[in-house]
Specification:
By secondary structure, this protein is an alpha+beta fold. Helix content is 31%, strand content 29%. A hairpin with a 5-residue loop joins strand 3 and strand 4.
């Protein structure tokens, strides 16, 4: 099994979460600005459970979302990585998922890390497409998906997330032309 342990971009380091990251994650998913497109913010106990799941996914499938830090000083920026789904769009998919702390919005970090994750998925997982599932009103995340070479596929009103999402995707053939 191929393991995604870390990625580096020009300005960022993506690394696997550890149990020491609980405060970083909780600060991210309990921020009303970050979570404005989600139905709820997460409690600390939900974050602990989610972190355990992410760490288990590293061992089970080789990847999940990761902590994103500035290479210059190690500051926690947010989380970006890959999620495996087999129940969202009626097929098995690998999603590039991203969530950054507000003070790092507009710096180009999301697209920089999202592209690195997209490329890793195509280079290592043998997938025919990579997707991003985005809340229909989340214009900034839609912009990241589009800048990541993805196109709008369709809207899903009924899905496991409990709120309408747009499916964005890039197929292997289109990625190979980038």
């Amino acid at each position: 099994m191929t393991q995604l342990r870390s990625l580096q971009t020009e300005r960022l380091r993506l690394r696997r979460y550890t149990t020491d990251d609980i405060d970083n994650i909780y600060g991210l998913v309990s921020d009303p600005l970050v979570m404005r497109y989600f139905p709820q913010m997460y409690s600390r106990s939900e974050v602990e459970e989610s972190l355990e799941h992410r760490i288990a996914r590293y061992d089970e499938i080789g990847y999940s979302v990761m902590a994103v830090e500035l290479r210059s000083d190690g500051t926690f920026v947010g989380q970006i990585g890959l999620l495996h789904w087999d129940d969202v769009d009626g097929r098995e998919d690998v999603e590039v998922a991203y969530m950054l702390r507000p003070q790092f919005w507009g710096c180009g970090y999301a697209i920089e890390a999202a592209r690195a994750c997209r490329d890793w998925a195509f280079e290592n997982l043998g997938v025919d497409r990579v997707v991003s599932f985005v809340a229909v009103d989340n214009a900034p995340s839609i912009a990241v998906a589009l800048r990541n070479g993805m196109h709008f596929v369709h809207r899903l009103d009924e899905n496991r997330f409990g709120f309408p999402i747009n499916v964005y995707a890039i197929e292997r053939e289109a990625w190979a032309l980038l």
